[in-house]
Amino acid sequence: MDRLFYPAVFHRAEEGGFWVTFPDIPECMTQGDDMQQAYEMAVDALGLSLTTMEENKEELPKASEPEDINTEDGFLVVVQFDLAEYRRKHCSRAVKKTLSIPEWLNDAAVKSGVNFSQVLQEALLEKVK
């Protein structure tokens, strides 16, 4: 469930550009000077909303089916959000972990100059793919 897709309604702004709303997340709105900027801002706004919900232990809303969305004075765009990629970019605060390994393995790794943190990170990244 790392890649999420939410429908967004892009509205043309009178002064130019677009403003964007997400029917499934009413508090999530943004704008951009052109289509590309509006889409990029929509991805960022969606990411901020979803990660805030996740941090607050709220259930993420189920995305509506595109055909069920009333676009009123705008048009529908499905916005893709990669939750795992967002976490990698924005949630990289280091946390300390304590672990146990056999003494002989520790001695051999120290002798070889192994970076324990790096090895653990690489192994965990491989495991969670």
From TrEMBL:
<dbReference type="InterPro" id="IPR051404">
    <property type="entry name" value="TA_system_antitoxin"/>
</dbReference>
<dbReference type="InterPro" id="IPR035069">
    <property type="entry name" value="TTHA1013/TTHA0281-like"/>
</dbReference>
<protein>
    <submittedName>
        <fullName>Type II toxin-antitoxin system HicB family antitoxin</fullName>
    </submittedName>
</protein>
<dbReference type="Pfam" id="PF15919">
    <property type="entry name" value="HicB_lk_antitox"/>
</dbReference>
<feature type="domain" description="HicB-like antitoxin of toxin-antitoxin system">
    <location>
        <begin position="6"/>
        <end position="95"/>
    </location>
</feature>
<dbReference type="InterPro" id="IPR031807">
    <property type="entry name" value="HicB-like"/>
</dbReference>
